[in-house]
Amino acid sequence: VQALKQHKKGLMQQLFPAEGETTPRLRFPEFREAGAWEVKRLGEVANISMGASPKSASYNDQRIGLPLIQGNADIKDRKSSPRLFASQITRECWVGDILVGVRAPVGMVAKSEHHACIGRGISALCVKGEDRQEFLYQWLLWYEPHWVSISQGGTFDSVNKNEITNLVALFPNPSEQQKIAHCLSSLDKVIGLESHKLDALKNLKKGLMQQLFPSEVA
Q1: CATH code reported for the domain at 39-171
Q2: Where exactly are the structural domains of the chain?
Q3: Distance CA 69, CA 183 (A)
Q4: What is the pLDDT of residues 145-171, one digit of tens each?
């Protein structure tokens, strides 16, 4: 699994332009003559919603209101995994939105699998126009380690809407975006399957060891 993750990391470094460059080192044959990628701000590419925390009195585990995605603690394996609901709805995200952590650790990227209320630790992005949602998601994964350079100091590192809106990225045409997104998301699926297999093997070994070795005598 780690080898696959390293392979994807190396591939992303080639498929996305390095700092100061306008084209990537690796391009699919049909796009080699397509020219330089276009410079865009995230605010041009996506609708950005910054979370706002509801009153804690509205938190509940009776499924009243919407699932609450408050911050990184409500993310698991790059997917939304809410622990509570909120009856007071402040800001919302929708299924398929890209979630970006705006408080430490800044820049954590995930996908929303819920129509949910988002708290102040989360922003939700949804691509507009012809640009591709999956391409932006993969680009944000690639950019994830760079957030520390723009996060603000304080008790908790954070970024605001202005900083997210004005973050500059390079985008190819929608067809090339689609090709890159498909390539990287296919790798994600393989990594996910292998991770599940590894977890299953670990659980099998644990069960066998419990049967093969006597438990401690009380």
Answers
A1: 3.90.220.20
A2: 1-37+173-218, 39-171
A3: 29
A4: 888 776 665 555 788 999 999 999 999
